[in-house]
Specification:
Helices cover 26% and strands 28% of the residues. It has 213 residues and is α+β, with helices and mostly antiparallel strands. The protein has one domain: Metallo-beta-lactamase, Chain A. The strands form three sheets. Strands 6-7-8-9-12-13 form a six-stranded mixed beta sheet. It is globular and about 50 Å long. The protein binds zinc ion (2 copies). The site of one zinc ion has 8 residues, from helix 2.
Length: 213
């Protein structure tokens, strides 16, 4: 038995929403349903899985914009992010306007996450790490079993998250990457919020922002 996943790019920002599921129970969670809910629901149907929860890395509109509606329509609990992102959740209406997104339904997380927490889907458990810097309440989800990490906008192949938004901080982001992502292991493949997958080892070798010196 293992954890499986499918990446579903959503919104005009091509955000990597991920459908993750336990291949034994076929219970699934959706990470960062930023929008394009019909596309997400089609993937759920195509994989033959049952959605049980919404997991959020952070509350930017391209990651969280579809959360309220999806939660209401399918009666799904909203897990995450860390409470540091409450002001981003409160600001979703303004974020929608600013970026020309459909109006986001408001929501309240069912369960906030903290560093060291775990989340469960079927018989699979993922570890939660708090990785502030891009936003204060950003979390990532790590499956040691399949050596995958869903890292939102913390780290990208060859780049790192923006830190010029309110609550962003460059030094904090670098510390999150070095102290909380690198220990997951060089071989661990990460699914970033945008763009292609890479491994932590590859980024430690070649990413100009965070490579080993
Ligand atoms: Zn973001
Ligand atoms: Zn993003």
């Amino acid at each position: 038995m293992t954890l499986r996943y499918q990446i579903i790019p959503v919104t005009a920002f091509q955000q990597n929403c991920s459908l993750v599921w336990c291949d034994e129970t076929l219970e699934a969670a959706v990470i960062d349903p930023g929008g394009d809910l019909a596309r997400i629901r089609a993937a759920v149907q195509q994989q033959g899985v049952t959605l049980q929860a919404i997991w959020l890395t952070h509350a930017h509109i391209d990651h969280a914009g579809g959360t309220g509606q999806l939660s209401r329509e399918l009666q799904l609990p909203i897990i995450g992010p860390h409470p540091g992102d409450q002001f981003w959740i409160d600001g979703l209406p303004q974020q929608s306007q600013m970026f020309g997104f459909p109006a986001a339904e408001p929501f309240t997380p069912t369960r906030w996450l903290a560093d060291g927490d775990t989340v469960q889907i079927g018989r699979q458990t993922l570890n939660v790490r708090h990785c502030p810097g891009h936003t204060p309440g950003h979390v990532v989800f790590h499956s040691p079993q399949i050596a995958r990490a869903f890292v939102g906008d913390v780290l990208f192949a060859g780049s790192i998250g923006r830190t010029d938004f309110p609550g962003g901080d460059h030094a904090t982001l670098l510390a999150s990457i070095r102290e909380r992502l690198w220990p997951m292991g060089d071989e661990t493949v990460f699914i970033p919020g945008h763009g292609p997958e890479s491994s932590f080892g590859a980024e430690r070798r070649s990413n100009p922002h965070v490579r080993d010196r």
